[in-house]
């Protein structure tokens, strides 16, 4: 129910040009997972993180390890 039984679609990103990051707000504590362009520094948001399970879902979707994800403020 509500998408729990769905398979996650494996997605890809350009590992040479982008790096996985979590953008966290200092004021509200809101966290968003996405990718930061290495050249321009522009952030592309992908998934709002409400729980730790959301971060695990992001890692599974893009084949990223939690240890590879940086947090930016």
What report would you give on this structure?
The protein has 73 residues and is α+β, with helices and mostly antiparallel strands. It has one domain (18-72). The chain contains one helix and four strands. It has one helix at residues 52-62; strands spanning 18-24, 31-37, 43-49, 70-72. It has a four-stranded mixed beta sheet, with helices on one face. It is globular and about 30 Å long. The mean pLDDT is 90.
Key words describing this protein structure:
4-stranded mixed β-sheet, globular, 1 helix, 73 residues, single chain
Strand content: 25-35%
Shape: globular
Helix content: 10-25%
- Compute the average pLDDT: 90
Strand line-up of the largest beta sheet: 3-2-1-4
Q: Return residue spans where pLDDT drops below 50 for at least 5 consecutive residues.
A: none
Distance between the termini: 35 Å
* Total beta-strand segments: 4
Number of domains in the coordinates? Answer: 1
N to C succession of SSEs:
EEEHE
Count, helices: 1
Biggest beta sheet attributes? 4 strands, mixed
Rg estimate, integer Å: 13 Å
Structural class: alpha+beta
What are the SSEs and their pairings?
Elements: E1 18-24, E2 31-37, E3 43-49, H1 52-62, E4 70-72
Parallel strand pairs: 1-4
Antiparallel strand pairs: 1-2, 2-3
Compose a concise summary of this entry:
The chain is of the alpha+beta class and 73 residues long. Helix content is 15%, strand content 33%.
